[in-house]
Hints:
By secondary structure, the protein is of the alpha/beta class. It has two domains: 16-254, Aspartate Aminotransferase, domain 2 (3-Layer(aba) Sandwich), CATH 3.40.640; 256-389, Aspartate Aminotransferase, domain 1, CATH 3.90.1150.10. The protein is built from 15 helices and 15 strands. The strands form four sheets. Strands 2-8-7-6-5-3-4 form a seven-stranded mixed beta sheet, sandwiched between helices. Strands 9-10-15-12 form a four-stranded antiparallel beta sheet, with helices on one face. The chain has a two-stranded parallel ribbon with strand order 1-11. Helix 3 runs parallel beside helix 9 (239-254), helix 4 (71-84) runs parallel beside helix 5 (100-109) and helix 6 (129-135) packs parallel to helix 7 (158-168). The protein is globular.
Amino acid sequence: MGRVYLDHAATTPVDPAVVAAMQPYWHETFGNPSSIHAFGREARAAIDTARDTVARCLGARPEEILFTSSGTEANNTVLQGVFATNLGRGHVVTSAIEHHAILTTCQHLAPLGLRTTYLPVDQHGLVDPDDVRRAIDRETVLVSVMYANNEIGTIQPLAEIGRICREAGVPFHTDAVQAPGMLPLRVDDLGVDFLSISAHKFYGPKGVGVLYARTGTRFAPLLYGGGQERGLRAGTENVAGIVGLAKALALAVSGRDAAVAQLTALRDRFIESVLARVEHCRLNGHPTQRLPNNAHFSVEFVEGEALLLNLDLLGIAASSGSACMSGAQEPSHVLQAIGLPREVAVGSIRFTLGRSTTAAEVDQAADAFADTVARLRAMSPFYADAMRTRGR
């Protein structure tokens, strides 16, 4: 049996069609897009075409598309940029389960005067829109709630939150990094004023992302210099990466319906197999309102890191559900926010499927997962003691 890659939420392989689209801009069409000669104009034309493509995919205007190096940079640009233009009005509303690109940035801005409200989530990881309404006050300059959680896959009610923000006159940002190819992306339907994505999450290259910023929104640049991207993001553009992102996004949007149907069926097959075979195992995240490729489990009496390493030895690539910070193994902030006890949360692991995932690979992974859990539990005195206590 071959290796099985089930960590597509971390990164995806670059689509061959994307590689082909990028190829000329590494060697043949290499000009600096800020140059006025023919070489530069060719590169500029490629960026303009890519911007038009991204705008069509998002239902936006080309001038609302800002190319960045990553989703993290896009998130930072929004948070730091909006805060910088609202000195004296420093309140952000976000959720307790955001990516660290949001949470750490809020923490960084706290000494400068930013006040942050971290909204709780329910046991499935859902934000209550009424909590957003109650959290907004006269000093609120931004609401930022992710579209879908990168760990447990829960999809948030963005359109409802967007209506609340619009009524309150507060800009609304979403970290939509996990969404392309999985969820609708039309910005007006979502009700967002800012949206962040990253190409390597949807079969594009690493090192390039997009920030959508609705016309009329105000934010200061994160980077200053040569005035590229209408003065909002300085630095010579990554032409090949931008071309690749646009191609990957167009493919993700056009192929979304077929991909969602395929992934949902395989995900459900995998979840059903695991839950039927592994006792004392729970599925984290919303049971139905979740990304079509996400299966996140917590297994009692087993550590997630041990699961991950043993699966890797069997050729199964997944992701540990517990984030290790500063060398200390602690449950991730997401699992803590949904109320998992520490002893359950530390036994968490995430599987995320992709376009190339097959039914045979899903079955292979389920077999390996069940066997690994059984083997690790057989070596655990805690498991034996617990089973005796429970009368097993």
